[in-house]
Amino acid sequence: MAKRNLLSVNDFSKPEVLHIIEWAKRIKKNPNAYATALKDKTLLMLFEKPSLRTRLSFEVGMTQLGGHAIFYSIKDSPLGKKESISDTARTASRYVDIIMARTFAHSDLEELAKHADVPVINALSNFAHPCQILCDLMTIQEKGKSIEKIKLAYFGDCNNNVTHDLMYAAGVVGFEIAVCCPPEEQFEPQRKVFDDVTELCSKNGGKLVVTGDVKEAAKGADVVYTDSWMSYHIPESEKEARVKALLPYQVNSKVMGMAKKDAVFMNCLPAMRGFEQTAEVIDGPQSIVFDQAENRLHIQKAIMLYLLGKKD
Q1: Is 296 a catalytic residue?
Q2: What is the pTM of this model?
């Protein structure tokens, strides 16, 4: 197939999303069957931001598929400065089979994908986080919930990568999402995402609600989700003001009590207890955060196999 990239969940169709999730489940169940699937293939991992789960899951995943992963920090490199992103993409394409990049600016990923001759995966940018969201959908399915029928409620800072791609997922797959945040532009989803997802929902049967009402968002939710209030690009000097603004949107036992009795709690990690959620929630019986973390490994294997044109 022609070269494909994954920069946002919106880059995949609904059939592709469902196919990759099922593929990841089979990989998880029988990893040895894929032990040589990417033999002699090389993954270049470009990191501008810190990472735990992303680096571990991609590097371990490539090893378990029989391939090789190269870690390269671009935090202090000449990328985009002394050497253009386009030249880097063209050069790397002569050496490696696939690239993943974890950057601040989403535009850098777009530039990389435009000029690379090999597939490019967004391992996190300020705008989107598709690998995380695909693994989240896989994890929700594992808990016995139909991802086409769920209501997902997201609380906190909604102008971030996880919220944006969860919204795109709702539009692509066709489920209901309610994002709940302070009624201020700095915390609200970007207008482009809102417009894109509204259009996708009209085509695919999804539903999008943006609200400041915690009860409205939580009512009837199958999944309750939150993320850090202090994303990597936010200066520490803003912490006090952000905590004050976002504390009413903290996920605690009261919020969980507004959702369905069998609702699950999700956070892509890292998490700060006492901030975006309380300890009793993230460490409680409804929390599935470490199942999410594990599934990054399996879903990313499936993504790499798919983008490299391997057959299931």
Answers
A1: yes
A2: 0.96
